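User: Quick sanity check before I run a bigger batch. Here is a single chain. Can you write out its predicted 3D structure?
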Amino acid sequence: QVQLVESGGGLVQPGGSLRLSCAASGSIVTINGMGWYRQVPGKQRELVAVITSDSSTNYADSVKGRFTISRDNAKRTVYLQMSSLKPEDTAVYYCNADITFYTAHSIARENDFWGQGTQVTVSS
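Assistant: Done. Predicted structure follows.
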């Protein structure tokens, strides 16, 4: 059906930068809203940033001015550029997308999809 595959996580020093990517594939009709969330052990998953189909954006207060979300509709990809990273940004980052797709019976349906997660660790 539909898959979201993330890449770009890793270990970075405080003050450094990383760019996450998330590519969608499958029997996609349209990709509506897309976003990034993060989760640390023992806590709920939290919103980091979202971007609508017309590229309107919204950010968590904790990342405003440091993170930038963008999308390339031709590549079916959403990005998260993270700068001035702090240790408290350490988490597993998940891509999310609201996608209209064709089922195996060629029926268009809309659903919410998640990537597998990518670890971001900010540490010296």
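The CA atoms of residues 6 and 22 lie 4 Å apart.

User: Great, the batch can go ahead then.
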